[in-house]
Amino acid sequence: MTARSFTLTVACLTLASSLSPVIRTAHAQRPAREGRLLTLAREAPGVWLGHDRIYGPDGYEPLSACGAGGCAPVVRSERCRPPECPGLGRVYRVARDVGEVSDWPTDVEGYTRELGLLESASELRLEPHPQHVLYELEQRRRERADERERARHAESLAWISHLRSRADRIELSFSADVATFVETPGTYLGASAAIDFTFLLDSRDALVEDGERWVLSSFLGDQLGGGFRAHVLYRLDSAQEAEWTIALGIGPLFVNRVSDSVVRVPSILGIVAPEMGLILRADRDPTWYAAWAAPFSLLLDHDTALDLVARVFFIDDWLLPPAEGEADPAEIILMLSAGVRLP
Known about the structure:
The chain is α+β, with helices and mostly antiparallel strands. The chain contains five helices and 15 strands. It has helices spanning 3-29, 108-117, 132-154, 212-219, 268-272, and strands at 34-38, 43-48, 53-56, 64-67, 70-80, 89-94, 168-181, 187-200, 223-235, 244-257, 263-266, 275-281, 284-299, 305-315, 331-342.
């Protein structure tokens, strides 16, 4: 070997050594699903859909397909369309596992993610998922909802805030109860549940020194509404045969925020206006009842409040008829409740 040949050989080896890391890096950066379809005359890009399946253009008859695991001959093909493959074309199945990838996802999120990772070639028709438009709309809706939720939690804790000042809202409440009957004494434990439809009358701070508005807020309240009530009581002692008492009714909700604090109190009308409904007990005929409540709420966080409620129930036609000349007796229930409200 002459000195010139030796020098040329060393230069070539040095150049190949220096380019090798670049070539390996470029290959590693290519998406794992990208492959090649080969014929005797040319090659075309493909997308591996699994270990032995590759997607490619229609009207093409490749002899073999190459992926990260090498090359293998094509044994058969069939037409394919989204979402089973990333476009309108054909799926070519090879004789052995070559593509080192998982199965092609058909759900909208996975399909869109994989499509974004592919480097599309001019010969490949990569198309979005058939439900892509609906998916994008849902994604935007979720993003807007998340943004509203982040903004809501960034606000200071208050019953009415910028993002909670809608004209109407549904509130749920659940509480544990302790009660006693005035005419037939006994200790009762139970539970109450309510669903209220509330309307915001005035978003400004309530119960502040503002003349006529202070009087109106104190009497009527700044949050108005009403809804369904359910009460269940169980007698702890065995002094009487009937242990269960159930009351179902409809009641108003007239409440007031104390300035911009986390406290909400009943208005005068909220205490005076009664809840009315049907009350049931095994040893009594079904009859009507009226109940008056004084609900106090303390906002614990943006989604939960502590409820404390005092109630008085008036029930007619449960006691034995009085003797002639005596007043018609009525049963009275005194109840205290403590629970949570979801505003």
